[in-house]
TrEMBL record:
It comes from Serratia quinivorans. This is HIT domain. GO terms for biological process: methylation. It is an enzyme of class 2 (transferase). The lineage of its organism: Bacteria, Pseudomonadati, Pseudomonadota, Gammaproteobacteria, Enterobacterales. InterPro entries: HIT-like (IPR011146), HIT-like_sf (IPR036265), HIT_Hint (IPR026026). PROSITE patterns: HIT_2 (PS51084).
Length: 140
């Protein structure tokens, strides 16, 4: 896949929670897993090892802060963090709150569903809260 057809290089309708010149944190609104976020490297690269040490440290700090804020706001049973990129080789992480009653728990979100989706709902102002918290912890 080249970067002309990459949805992360040419995003549409993203809900950006935070960004800097290197990366952005986005909210996945249409997910059956409430609170699912992604951290996406702006430049079209495929692997973590393509980054310099300081860049790796920087993006992992963003991933950790998104996770920390999701834990504080949503109190999930677990947070899954994944970087796959097989179908879309653009460096990104999934940060997925998991709940005991979610449709796949304790299996991965990419496995077959075991039950109906969770009844967990997000706070009405979830996006604004995440934006505020990430601006404070990561800088505006």
């Amino acid at each position: 896949m080249n970067n002309e057809s990459c949805v992360y290089c040419h995003p549409t309708d993203e809900i950006v929670l935070w960004q800097n010149p290197q990366c952005r944190a986005i909210f996945i609104a249409d997910s059956p897993f409430p609170g699912w976020c992604r951290v996406v490297w702006h430049e079209h690269i495929a692997e973590l090892s393509d980054l310099r040490d300081d860049q790796r440290n920087s993006i992992m700090a963003v991933v950790a802060q998104v996770e920390a804020q999701l834990r504080q706001l949503l109190t999930p049973a677990k947070i899954n963090i994944a970087s796959l990129g097989t179908a879309l080789p653009h460096l990104h992480w999934h940060i997925i709150p998991r709940y005991l009653d979610d449709s796949h728990f304790p299996e991965p979100v990419w496995s077959a569903a075991r039950r109906a989706p969770t009844t967990k709902t997000l706070p009405e102002n979830f996006i604004e809260l995440m934006q505020e918290r990430l601006a404070i912890t990561l800088g505006a």
